[in-house]
Every structure is written in structure tokens, then in C-alpha cells.
Amino acid sequence: MFLSGHVEETLDKSYKPIEGKEEVIRKVTEPFSVLLLGVDQRGKEIGRSDTIIYSVVRPQDNKVLLLSIPRDTYTEIIGKGFETKLNHAYAYGGAKMSMESVDNLLKHKVDHYATINFEGLKDVVNALDGVKLPITKAIVNKDPDHEKFRIEPNKPIYDGQEALYFVRYREDSDMNRTMRHRIFLNAVMQRTIEMDKIGRIPELIEIMGENFTTDMRPKYMIDLAKTMFTNDGVPSISSYMLHGDGKMIGNGWYYMVKDEDLDYIKTLLDNWLDPKTSKENLMEPRQVKED
User: Do 101 and 78 touch, CB atoms closer than 8 A?
Assistant: First the structure.
């Protein structure tokens, strides 16, 4: 399925190590964390990370935990010495500053990063002949300062442009926007599996070109894919979103994470990152009702 040679050459173009960061060496079966950053960057502008997901991958168990962090989370930006929205970290210092700021917020190390520019995903979605999205009512951008578009509901398949609009829609809450980003990323993965295009993942990455970067070495990514997709089939995904409340500070709106939720997250991540935790003893994220 994942032949070496051309595959490794393709992935090598996306390999961008963090300057000054010591390389992490581990067995391919050991748990690790990776910060997924979805960036909506157009042209040569400096983008901000609209999607921030702290992920724990357990190759041996074929399980993945996705912890979504709202982009407007109020926290310290490591390297800047002040507090503001977390997504500003990427604009200030790229993946390195984002990793360090998330590490500080969650009090858990970030082993790797993977950055995806949503603009590049449009071509990937088209290469997959579209994706399935749970849109039950029309999504319309009405704000005069925003890009104008309308996405019709209840379509069996949505093309790349419609999927990009789905990701970019921002005329509701930060929580809903974060949820849409997570739904979209999951839809792409599920469509890849459904269309039996796992073996074309390197080709899809090549389509994305410079829109995908990571500090995971190509060989490690290939060995990881082999381990997970030949283990028990499709990896099982568990999800949780960091909870808090909106608050105005000065002229800006921020997302204030609840201390109790941060304490819970610490316990959850301790459990998932511990290589001694058996598959049967992995914590499933709790269900939290929104206020």
C-alpha cells in the first residue's frame, strides 16, 4: 500500500523541522502528541490558525484523541510575554510559537506539529470526488464585510469549493466554527477510506503541495501509516472540545477556558499519553452540556 521511494520523496517536500527543537526519537508503536493547525491563509498573507487540535495518537491501539481548542482561547503567547487569543501565536511565530503556547496552556508536551492550509484542501476534496458534510440547512454568509457565498443543505456530496466555504463560515459562534473544522477534517479522512484511496495519501499530500507541512520525518510517517492502517483497519477517533465562556476584554471577545476543564484535560491526556495504559483502560472523553 505505502511503497517507499516516490512516497518518501513526496513527503520529504512537506518536512519542515522546528529550528532549535530537539528531534523526538521513539518506536513507531509508542503514543505521541501532534498539534494540528488548520490555517486559512490566502496568497502571501500571514495566516492565523483557525483550527487548533491537540491530538494524541496511539498506534499500537489504533486510536486517536482529538482535543479541539477554540481559536479565541485567552492564554499567554510564549515568546511574546502577554496574553491574547491563542490563534495569534501562529501569526507571531508560526508552528513553533503555537506549539510552545499550547504546551503552556495544557501543561503537556507537544511532540510534533502538522499545518494544513485550508486553501490547499479544496483540490484534495475534488481529488476525492467530494466529501459528505452534515449540512441540514442553508449556510449563508450575510455580513457585508465577509466573502459572499451560500451552501445548499442536504446534498449527498459537497465539492472542494463548498467544503472550503463550510470551513470559512464564521457568522456564528467560535465553538460552532471549531466543530465545523473538526467535522471537515474527519470527513476528508472518512472519504479517503470510503473511496479506497488510502494508498493515494502521498498523492493527495502532493496535490496540497506547500499547503501541508510537518516536522515528522517521511519514513516515520510511512511506518506510522503502515502500523495503523494494517492493524485493525480504520483508526478509532475520540473527540473533546475545551470548554469555557466568552468574555469581552477591552474591545475584544475572548474565550476563557474553565479551570475545572483544564484539570480534567490534564487527567485525560495523562491517561492517553501513558504507554502503560491499556486499550481497555483508555478514558473516553466525557459529554458536557453547553450552558
Answer: yes
pTM: 0.87
Contacts of residue 280, defined as CB under 8 A and 6 or more positions apart, other chains included, come to none
Question: Looking at residues 161-172, what average pLDDT do you find?
Answer: 89
| Domains of the chain: residue spans and CATH | 6-276 (3.40.630.190)
The terminus-to-terminus CA distance of the chain in angstroms comes to 46
Which of these, 206, 127, 116, lies nearest to 160 by C-alpha position?
127
pLDDT band at 58 (very low <50, low <70, confident <90, very high): very high
Asked whether residue 2 carries a pLDDT value surpassing 60, the answer given is no
DSSP 150: E
How far apart are alpha carbons 98 and 213 in whole angstroms? Answer: 14
- Determine contact, residues 156/27, Cβ cutoff 8 Å: no
Give the integer Cα–Cα distance in Å for 236 and 281: 15
CA–CA distances in Å: residue 228 to residues 16, 110, 194, 224, 232: 23, 20, 16, 6, 7
Q: What is the DSSP letter of 23?
A: P
**Interacting residues of 61 by C-beta distance below 8 A, sequence separation 6+:** 279, 282
- Taking the C-alpha atoms of residue 191 and residue 200, their distance in angstroms, rounded to an integer, is 12
Q: Which amino acid is at 209?
A: G
- pLDDT at site 6: 65
Do 38 and 185 meet the contact criterion of CB atoms below 8 Å apart? yes
In 3-state terms, what secondary structure has residue 108?
Answer: coil
Q: Which three cell numbers stand for residue 186?
A: 474527519
Taking 90 as the threshold, does the pLDDT of residue 89 lie above it?
A: yes
